[in-house]
Design goal:
The protein is mainly beta. It is built from one helix and twelve strands. The strands form three sheets. Strands 2, 4, 6, 8, 9 and 10 form a six-stranded mixed sheet that branches. A four-stranded antiparallel sheet has the order 1-3-7-5, with no helix packed on it. It has a two-stranded antiparallel sheet with strand order 11-12.
């Protein structure tokens, strides 16, 4: 017999410069009076993540053993949740091969959550403008998000003291927002 318990969720950051990885901590328990060799198998839904961990473990009689599975994602992956199933199967007990007997196994499920990140970009279409009193000028700003989220909000404008100083100096500031 064997019992397996793994943490239910791991969060993975995929922003540029991140580790792009996560850890899953698991516990395998041998409730029998004999040492067991346990095979560990990891299945990832869709095969879009890489996993590494022990392939076999020796668990003493009436003992519990902790192990970790490392999960690797691709930088910039879309925000999503991915199912991971870990399976522990007894392949020998007290040094005797038991693969011909009915399977003694247990499974544990974990969700890998690919975390959202923002990577805002901003570009002025004109780097500088010489202004003449009494004339109107349009300054265009192109902004975007190279992150992996779909619903980021960007606020662009003049705030506080900067806006107050410009208006005190006689500037009239207005803005219109358009999006594509």
């Amino acid at each position: 017999d064997v019992e397996l318990d793994c943490q239910p969720e791991t969060q993975i950051e995929v922003y540029p410069g991140s580790r792009n990885g996560g850890l899953i901590t698991c516990y395998v328990t041998n409730p029998t009076a004999y040492p067991e060799e346990v095979e560990i198998d990891i299945e990832i839904d869709g095969g879009i993540l890489e996993a590494s961990g022990p392939s076999t473990l020796t668990v003493g009689p009436a003992s519990e053993l902790e192990f970790q599975i490392t999960i690797k994602a691709v930088q910039g992956m879309d925000v999503q949740s991915i199912s991971i199933e870990t399976k522990a199967t007894v392949v020998s007990a007290n040094g005797i091969d038991v693969t011909a007997l009915p399977e003694a196994s247990d499974t544990a499920d974990t969700i890998a959550v690919i975390m959202e990140y923002s990577a805002p970009t901003i570009q002025l279409t004109t780097a500088s403008v010489d202004m003449v009193s009494g004339q109107d000028y349009a300054i265009e700003v192109i902004y975007g998000n190279n992150g992996n989220g779909a619903y980021d909000t960007m606020n662009i404008g003049l705030k506080g003291q900067t806006r107050d100083r410009l208006e005190t100096a006689g500037f009239t500031i207005s803005s219109g927002v358009s999006s594509l």
